[in-house]
Design brief:
Layout (H helix, E strand, L loop, with lengths): L8 E9 L9 E11 L5 E11 L8 H7 L3 H4 L5 H9 L5 E6 L2 H7 L2 H4 L4 E3 H8 L8 H8 L15 H16 L4 H9 L22 H7 L5 H16 L8 H4 L2
Parallel strand pairs: 1-4, 4-5
Antiparallel strand pairs: 1-2, 2-3
Length: 254
């Protein structure tokens, strides 16, 4: 009997690291959870996922250990990143794309040579588009605000460990893929984030539509690319009758 064919997947990745800036910092754990398109046309979590501890080749600073609780002795005998990364990141030919929450961070370590030039879905950027009413857009706030169907609470703990975080993100990705196409999620992920509300200043918390022209002009040269992109988009909307925020049904069908 021939084995059943494996479905194509989007693989959600989460990393725990020694810090935020490679090459000074390195990976000490990778976790993953797959999301696959079912025969009924709906996306669902697929397989058990997993995690692997990684020897970062340097001490883990105490301030970082306090976040993920991975100690130097936990990774002393673990494999190196270059031995671990490719098999996890590149389950070719089944993988359609990779995904992560704030994927720009993972992409610093998961370089194109390790991923076979995979495209990435950033679930943070996509959440800004699809669920702009959320009170915040971290992985865990979305978890408790949306309460995704089927998410097993204990399996998504502890927070700031690679598999539980990937598992939670995979539920957000599943729901996103069942609202919008993969092509649309990838397109949003290539752009800076489109923020539904002003982050700081006198207009903090307001929707961008609500602020004055003078206030908006000040954000057009902001150093934060997400703020600047959102201000430019709102400026264009006011000039052309477009919109910022929740996507239309037509846009979701890119």
């Amino acid at each position: 009997m021939r084995p059943a064919s494996q479905p194509q997947i989007v693989r959600v990745i989460d990393l725990e690291t020694t810090g935020n800036a490679p090459p000074a910092h390195a990976v000490c754990e990778i976790g993953w959870q797959d999301v696959a398109l079912g025969e009924d046309g709906r996306w669902e979590l697929h397989g058990d996922g997993g995690n692997i501890l990684v020897n970062p080749g340097r001490p883990i600073p105490p301030i970082t250990q306090a976040v993920h609780h991975i100690r130097d002795e936990d990774v002393a005998d673990a494999p190196w990143w270059h031995d671990v990364a490719r098999p996890v990141l590149d389950p070719w030919p089944r993988r359609l794309a990779l995904a992560a929450h704030r994927a720009d961070f993972e992409q610093q370590y998961c370089t194109p040579s390790l991923t076979r030039n995979a495209e990435w879905v950033c679930t943070w950027k996509c959440a800004l588009r699809l669920w702009p009413d959320s009170p915040a857009f971290s992985n865990q706030v979305l978890r408790y605000w949306r309460k995704p169907h089927g998410l097993q609470h204990e399996r998504g703990l502890p927070v700031h460990r690679a598999f539980p975080d990937a598992y939670v993100t995979a539920h957000h990705l599943r729901d996103m893929l069942n609202e919008a196409s993969l092509a649309q999620l990838l397109a949003w992920s290539r752009e800076p984030g489109l923020l539904p509300r002003v982050r700081y200043g006198p207009d903090r918390g307001k929707e961008w539509r609500e602020i004055t022209e003078e206030s908006l002009a000040g954000f057009l040269t902001d150093r934060d690319p997400d703020v600047r992109h959102t201000a430019e988009t709102e400026y264009a909307r006011r000039r052309s009758g477009g919109h910022v925020g929740r996507a239309t049904p037509q846009e979701l069908l890119l």
